[in-house]
Specification:
Blueprint: H1 2-17, H2 22-44, H3 63-79, H4 82-85, H5 87-103, H6 105-110, H7 118-160
Helix pairs in contact: 2-5, 2-7, 3-5
């Protein structure tokens, strides 16, 4: 068990910390964690609603509302410099909110109470690929965007001259 811990720590330091992608790493893995947890919960306990205490006269509050609330709190924390004091916690909060919100993405699109719609999976796959790309290839994308930005500014300066 110690060998796995040592290997994980080494890989984590080389692939995440050394590339300065630790916060995006925590966004990615908290996002995936809450998505998987929500899917397991809904699959195995479909009639047990943790949010039933918050139900309103015949209505049901879906967990994507919790995701939106967590995203709002993470955004507020970022705007008020809380993320400088507690960056890891803010990143995890953001990832959890993102996962809960997009777990029910299909409900947003179709405005129907159909939890298992494919659009939710499509959204989760796209977000996961973007986050993985940013965590593990962040330097590559930064270089690409910087070069595009420089070329864009050169073209704009030629047009305005």
């Amino acid at each position: 068990m110690k060998i796995f811990k040592k290997i994980f720590r080494s890989v984590y330091k080389k692939m995440v910390v050394a590339k300065q992608q630790e916060l995006m790493f925590w966004v990615l893995y908290s996002f995936l964690f809450i998505f998987v947890l929500a899917r397991i919960y809904v699959y195995f306990l479909p009639h047990v609603s943790v949010l039933s205490l918050l139900s309103t006269s015949g209505g049901h509050i879906h967990h994507f509302v919790l995701g939106v609330i967590l995203l709002a709190i993470a955004g507020f924390a970022a705007l008020n410099d809380y993320h400088h004091k507690h960056p890891k916690q803010t990143a995890i909060l953001y990832g959890l909110g993102l996962g809960w919100a997009f777990d029910e993405f299909g409900m947003w699109i179709y405005l129907r109470d159909n939890y298992w719609v494919r659009k939710s999976y499509d959204a989760i796959i796209i977000i996961t690929l973007l986050l993985v790309s940013w965590v593990y290839f962040g330097n590559f994308w930064s270089t690409v965007f910087n070069k595009l930005r420089i070329r864009f500014h050169k073209k704009i300066s030629k047009i305005s001259a």
